[in-house]
Amino acid sequence: MIKKIRSQLVATADTPINANIADSENEAAVLIAITDCDLSPSMVLTRRASHMNSHAGEVAFPGGKVEPTDDDLIVTALRESYEEIGLPIDVVDIVGVLPSATSKFGLQVTPFIGVIPHDVVLQANEDELDSIFHVPLQYFLDSEPSSDYEVSFRGVDYIVPCYRYEGYVIWGLTAFFIGDFLNRVFDLGLDLSMARSQVKKS
User: Fold this and answer.
1) What's the domain range around 129?
2) Quick check: 64 and 103 in contact, CB under 8 A?
3) pLDDT digit string (tens) for 159-188?
């Protein structure tokens, strides 16, 4: 499966892997880390701590905003992954990049796909996260997102699509990037418009 991921990401690439920083004030990068267990690879996700000012309690990929010292967006994704989950930079093999998308706060977020050792030890930064968890890729291949999760943003209630896995709810931009990844690598034909929120009707 890892070989397929590598080959398909090269075949479908439409964004340079070494993405340059265009607007450091409004850009961010995340890492979609896939373990190198070929028979049963998994995707690394986090849940942000409940005390965070933004995205509190939400499931996300490790990542964050560009800092002035970052040479490019890959540096941002790797630096943030080290800071958040203790992932050593030198064990990550960047194999692809997906097109960026805009977060609910207006940030342009670029996701990079990296293969990591399946036995690497990760440690959650308790200042930012309450947990790190792995989701087998097979789960996403076998499960379609449901469109029944309710969230509130700036006083408006929305119904959004999500994946549910062992008590974790994966929605928003994270779910969108997962769907884009699955479409490009496994040609699932997921309707990515489903990752867009709809206002809840009273």
Assistant:
1) 2-16+26-144+169-191
2) no
3) 888 999 999 999 999 999 999 999 999 999
